[in-house]
Automatic annotation (TrEMBL):
Keywords: Hydrolase, Protease, Serine protease. PANTHER family: PROLYL ENDOPEPTIDASE-LIKE, PROTEASE FAMILY S9A OLIGOPEPTIDASE. Residues 472-686 form the Peptidase S9 prolyl oligopeptidase catalytic domain. Residues 21-412 form the Peptidase S9A N-terminal domain. The lineage of its organism: Bacteria, Pseudomonadati, Bacteroidota, Cytophagia, Cytophagales. It holds the Pfam family Peptidase_S9_N. Belongs to the peptidase S9A family. This is Oligopeptidase B. It comes from the Bacteria. SUPFAM superfamilies: alpha/beta-Hydrolases, Peptidase/esterase 'gauge' domain. Gene3D superfamilies: alpha/beta hydrolase, Prolyl oligopeptidase, N-terminal domain.
Amino acid sequence: MTQAQPIKPPKAAIKPKELITNGHKRIDNYYYLNERENPEVINYLNAENTYLDQVLAPVKELQEKLFDELKGRIKQQDESVPYKEGTYYYYTRFVTGGEYPIYCRKKGSLQGAEEVMFDGNAMAKGHNYYQIGGYEVSDNDELAIFAEDTVSRRLYTLRVKNLKTGKLYAEAIPNTEGGSFAWATDNKTLFYVRKDPQTLLGYRVYRHTLGTNTKADVLVYEEKDNQFYMGLGRSKSKKYITIGSDHNGVATEYYLLEASKPTGEFKTFLPREKGHEYDIVHYKDKFYVRTNWKAENFRLMEVPEGKTADRTAWKEVIPHRPDVYLANMDVFANHLVLGERKAGLTNIRVINQKTQADEYLNFGEPAYVAGIGYNPDFNTNVLRFGYASLTTPSSTFDYNMDTKAKTLMKEQEVLGGFDKNNYVSERVYATSRDGVQIPVSIVYRKGTKKDGSAPLLQYSYGSYGYSTDPGFSSARLSLLDRGFIYAIAHIRGGQEMGRRWYEDGKMLKKKNTFNDFVDVSEYLIKNKYTNTDKLFAMGGSAGGLLMGAVINQAPQLYRGVVAAVPFVDVVTTMLDESIPLTTGEFEEWGNPKNKEYYDYMLSYSPYDNVEKKAYPNLLVTTGLHDSQVQYWEPAKWVAKLRTMKTDNNQLLLHTNMEAGHGGASGRFQALKEIALEYAFMLNLVGERQ
């Protein structure tokens, strides 16, 4: 018998391009891979996909088994907990075999006749990708605005449906922002956000009258600063249509228009001011304002209608607290509900506005996530909230804020014999190299040995102030049941420990994020949760940047790394303002046209810092139509790693040729990507079952 020939990986052609910034020259050998329509580029991506299939052929059966396992835990015929808005109860349901939700409602009571508003399965027919980007029902309950995306570029087409007749109106407005639309009270005027199809930034708000030519739509607001993101909606009180412009962690501005006066003029709530961020909730004759004005961790204030631009009229309701981050709020006729973060955990605080008595809901687990749900009614004493932990499936509760009675409305049903008592969660703290304590949430199956022999997957994100909370994943059970430990590192760059946690992990302090992750890895090894031959790391998008930086800094710590849609070509992307979302990111990473930021970015950008050395086994995933992180970033990174790395470890690139940043659409198709990631890791620790 002859020994099988090793499978040869594809190699992208080298085509040097000189890039000069701030007097500094870089040579990018794979710059041309950004030519999406170039057959050579498409052929290269397809060749990488073929190579991945060949390398992972020995675990093809495992991959299929994992997919069946993941799918088998999902209750196929399922339904959400209904919520009441106006005279209707709204809910979504899934049918056996259905990839997409069916959006339904019942009038008067849950015993009423079901009305199907949108059947996602029927609407998705003929499309490789499909997503409904939200909907809004008119005040007379007869019409619905909805938005659909069939390409996965987050450019939605806005449509209007008559819910009584099922008729679709002729309007089909392209390049809109999904979920950013609102009805006026006349049931015929609607407002929507138009996106720039190049940068994908929402930048204009239009007024449209149902049944008229969209070319006659009236421009009512235009955002001139391309560093601001924009959204639009209707206030909980239904009195106002609101435009919100947000400059990533730097400034906020709201504009209001009474929904009963659709041809009126939007007026500023409070003019934008660098460093001031705020949210608003309108109730009766006043606004509640969550604000960081003289309050790094935010405080709550209130202000009468008509005086919002006069900050001397703002009255403090909840003061600033250095150890508590005020994350969000909801307002009821007799109660005020706050979402807070303290010591890295989420809390829900309920305040009786008549007695001022307050309480924190008790959840009783060391690592969990709890959040205020959708509560459209002011005049109720029942709070809808969500809860999950590393061992408790996602749950929906109704809480009576007067009697303190807590009712479990639904717990995600996990099929296949799942028992939460078979799993253990922990909360530990690892010391980063600068002495800061980093929270780590850990889960494993009972009986898993903590003697250094267990494989472990360490996950994190660490950017944009996005907190990675310890929630539940039925998919994760496939790793836990095969002996894996799973750990979430709550590193700086998120907001788990308050606003300062975020500020200390961005801009010129970004390297704290990477250092924290590596130091958590070393803690897990030192404390016998795993060892370097069985430690895996995973992150996506900005978390993919984290993966790239980590394996440049400490490749010896990891057996394998999964980098999903990774943002790895930081400098080149941030220099190109034509790329979607670049300008809005300057306050996260810095503007590399400024030499100080250029030099700092260049010192950690994964693509620019690939060296001739050994790297861990690596699985990189992307989508050809990705609007957030363009496919060519991971493609270039893999191409460069192939020529530079000195090891024989696996280097695999998977490009979904039909999807974007969020991967495949549909509740089952997305599981195939998870099965691929798990098979990659399990194969490396010798697990083929």
